[in-house]
Structures are given as C-alpha cells and as structure tokens.
Request: fold
Amino acid sequence: VATKHALCATCHGASASTRTKNAVAAGGATCASCHDGHNIPVIHAVSRTDQCIDCHKGTTLNTVTFSDGTTLATKHALCATCHGASASTRTKNAVAAGGATCASCHDGHDLPVIHAVARADACVTCHAGTDLNTIKFSTGAVATKHAACATCHGVSAPTRTKNAVAAGGATCASCHDAHNLPVIHAVSRTDDCVTCHAGTDLNTIKFSTGAVATKHAACATCHGVSAPTRTKNAVAAGGATCASCHDAHNLPVIHAVSRTDQCIDCHKGTTLNTVTFSDGTTLATKHTSCATCHGASASTRTKNAVAAGSATCASCHDGHDLPAIHPVTRTDSCVDCHTGTTLNTVTFSSGAVATKHALCATCHGASASTRTKNAVAAGSATCASCHDGHDIPVIHAVSRTDQCVTCHTGTTLNTVTFSSGAVATKHALCATCHGASAPTRTKNAVAAGGATCASCHDQHDLPTIHALTRSDGCVSCHPGTALTSVKLSNGTVSAKHSTTCTTCHGASASTTVKNAVAAGSATCASCHPTTVSSTTLHPAYDTGHTKSNSCISAGCHQTNLITTHARKTCAVCHDGAKTLTGSTTCSSTGCHPTVTFASHTAIHDECNNCHNSMSWHSDYYPPSGTVGALGWACSDCHHGTVGTAAADLSGVDWDTLHSGDSGCSVYECHY
Reply:
C-alpha cells in the first residue's frame, strides 16, 4: 500500500505540495491531479552484465530488443506482462524480489535450440547438419557465418534473409538458391574423350554405354578421404579436364581384332572400329559405338565376349549367309510370281531361284548398276529399288483363233472381257494362274506355256450361265428355266435365245435389253413387256378372243375367252403358227361337247347355279298344285318332299326336261 496516501498531512499538511493543495482545494479526485505520469525506464532499469546484450540491446525493460537489435520486445512495455494476473510465477517472484536481470525471468538459449533447419531438401547430401550453426560446407567444415547472429538478424543481412526470419523460414531454400554439380563442376571438353563419354559437367559425364558415371555424382569420389592422391591434387589445383584424373585410351589400342577368319574376305579391318561392311569401304558404324558391346541392351553373348576379352568375329557373330542379312520387303505384287522373303531365295516366275541375287558382287561389286549401288547405299529392301515392274500384257499374250473372241474380246490375258464387255478381273491377278489355289488344269497350262482359252477353260453354252428366275406368269405358256431353253407357246425353243449372243449383247439389241444385261437381270420382264396384249408379241390377244356364242349369257360365260378360260395354254387351240386348230364355238370337238344337263351339272354342281333365286321360281312356277306358264307342275321337278336337295330332285329325266331348240338357249336360259 502507498502508505503516504494514508497520512492526512501528505495532502492537507503544511508541507503538502502546492499542486496537491490546489487539487484538494479544487476537489480533485484523479491521480493526475497530483501526479505526473511515469515510464518504465525511470523505474525498470535492467542490469546488462549478461551476454544476452550481444543480441538483445537495451538497458531498461521497455527498450530491450529482439535479436535483430532494433525491434523492441513489445511485451516488456506492457505492465501486465510482469504485473498482471496471468504473469508467470517466476516473473511474479522476480517482481516481488526486485529482480532486474534477464535471468530473473528468462533462461539462456543457444542457436541449435531456436534455429533447427528442416532437412527435407537435397542439400543435406553435401551440407550435413540439422540446425543452423552446425551446417557444414561440402568439405565438412562448419559454415561459420551461420553461427553469427548478425548474419541473419543484423542490419546488413540480405532482404531475402530478413524476410525469411520474419516469416519463420526454416529451410535452406528460404535464404539460398539451389545449386547443382554442373554449376560448380563444369568440365572442359576439348579432349577426345567426349566422343564416347558425353557430358559437359562432372555429374553428367557418361560411360561409353551411355549410362551416367555415378561415381562422379558422389562428392566423396573427389573430396573424400579415400579419393586418390591424383584426384585430390586435381581438386586442390582446380583441374577441370578428364586428363586431370584419368589416363586416355582409344579404340584401336584396346579393340584389336584377330582376323584369321574368312570374314575378312568381305569385312575388312583389323580393329573393331575399322571393320567394314561387305562392300569393303563402309565402316560398320555399330562397332564404333561403345554401347553396342558395353551397353545394357548388348546381347548376352556380346557381354560374355567382352567379359572374356574375346577378340574374334566369332565371339559375337555366327557365320551368316545372305538370307540372314538380306530380308526383302514383300508388300509388292511381285511376290505373286516371284516368291521368297530374302534376297537369295527370290525366284523367277518359273519357281527357280534367281541365282544372281546370291552373288555379293551383283549388288556390291564394282560392276553393279548405279541404281543398285544407290539402293544398297540407301538400305532399300524392295524389288522396286533395283527393278522396274512389268505388266501382264507384256508376258501374257493370248492366241485368239478360237470362237470365244466373239463374246470375250481381248488379245492379252488381262484385257480379255466378259460377254458384257467388262474386263475379267481375275485374269489380272497373278495368283489366279500362279497361286497355290489355282486349279491343277491351270497350273499345268502355265507349266506347258498354254496361251489359249481352251488351255484353262471348257467351252460353255448359254444355259450354263443364263439361268432364269421363273416366278412370272409367262412360264405357263413359255416354259424353260434357262435362257436357251425357253420355248415359244407352240413348244419349240426360242432360237433367238439359244444361238445368237447378239440378241442381248449385240449393238442392235434394244435399250431395254442392254439395260437388263448391265443390271444382271434374270427375269422375262427385264426384256419383255408384261402386258399380254402387246402389239409386239401378242397382237389382238384380248380383242381377238371375243366371240359371240350360244354359251355366252350375261352373268355366266363372258365374251372374252381368255378371261373365261383363265389364260389356259394357248396350244389347246393354237398350233405353233398361231393357227386355230378347231371350231370357235363352245361345243367344238375337243373343247366342249354338245351340252346335256348331265354334262352341264358335272361342271356347275347344283341346280342353284342356274336356278338361284325364288323370284325366278315365282315367275315361272305358280303356287303348289297349279300349272305354270311353261306347262310344268311341281311334281315335274320335285319328287316327294318339296325341296332343292339332291334327294328331293330325283327320278327326273333332266336331259329331256332341259332340251330345247337351240341347246343352251332353251327357255331364256342361255342366249
């Protein structure tokens, strides 16, 4: 308690300050009435004999700084920090004891405690250390700048570092850009080594196989305790060439080839990188590529030869023949006649091997054609590289003394046509005659050099190739299922169909017929009109068969015989010359005999066909028991019970009853 405040004389006594007396007189009731404000420096001086002052400047509590030396520790300027209810017990105890040193409230700290570094980066490979003041250079020495607070917190620290400190950055990348070996280990590549060992910096230099020389990427290889003295000296001297650490080697020195084999006849050269292809001049470039023998994709046999130090062709290669090294691309049509998938197995069309292909000099010799040499140089592997094509007309002329030429024109195999004039496309396919599936007869003809149609084909007649679809009504009068067997209505074969090709295929054939041939139609209607009354083929077919005859009555027999007889076969009445063979009356011999009731009812079934209504019956027959106008009584027709069934109409002489002066016309029945 401020005890002075408990003494009346402090404010009211003679010795009270004028300011206090004035405050009393004025009734002042604030601290400011009597007191000036105060600040911490006046009452919170700090003893700075500790080492904290190196980073944390200031000699009073509210001027103490953070480690950057400028930023005030703002919490110190807040009374509550030390005097508040939430102040730590240690701080409260220090206040009570009048403590005035940093150690009264704070423990000391060291850099590792507050400067741990996240080492998820690749830097740790060379720069070991998990806190700021233990991080090392790639040589293993501690980076001393990290141990100096001013490096990061000082006024002269880089802005990037100050920003990292402010953001609480704890990674190398917060303050440093990354670097990699190329940046600090560039290699001068003016040497010959670069031919096989590519790479312009130490950690990208490759073995001759193309794989990176991994030892170069390991710092210890050059900087480690176990590095060779030569390498250490090179590092100390700043050497940046392969020769600084390595001796040179070259292919001739280490790849001499023993040439006691016969391969040397075509493949010249006594060192691996001078061996040639069979032309004797072109280097086998694969031999000059280290990876061919030393690479990961080298064959097991080659790898074994390298391991064993073998130096002969046979170490890696089998003896070869042309098929092994001269496959031919056979996507061309030549393969139809000239079989073979390697140069020395290609055949003539006769099947014999083309022996010139099996001679190296044919393609590689000095006398080889320029075209062939160019093909070899370009690595071409098709027939067309060296040969011009030929076509069938040149080698397949056909002798046309046969009669086939009438319909099948053409003097060479691939120009022979169908009767329609279209080229017979199968003839243009080599496989048709030369292929494995060609008929034996054709193969024999090829072997014998046959050049006539008859060599491979039998003669044919039209029925074989002109079958007709006979679903039409014409077949009733004109039977026949092939064009050459169709008959006229008199039963004779239509000569035009059977013997004359030009009827359908000739220049004078009608447009309708030509269109039918072109469309491949196979019905009568394709070429012939379907109307039977055509004035061309069936003149007066309808009108010529209308006849007034005693059989013709309205509602029974029509006036048109064709309609009445449902177009029965014409030959019933006509011979081949369309001549009528009988009478034109219904009762003519061979057609309808003299009509009797019996013959009539055999055709027309019941009486109801004529006597088909009771009105008719009433007109001619009076009620039962009387005699009608015709003089008939009921009993003349009805026997017993009156009815129309057969049992009721029996025992009557129907012929007599139905006879009349003019046959069918009796009693106004048939007119």
Summary: The radius of gyration is 64 Å. The chain has a mean pLDDT of 75. The first helix runs from residue 8 to 12.
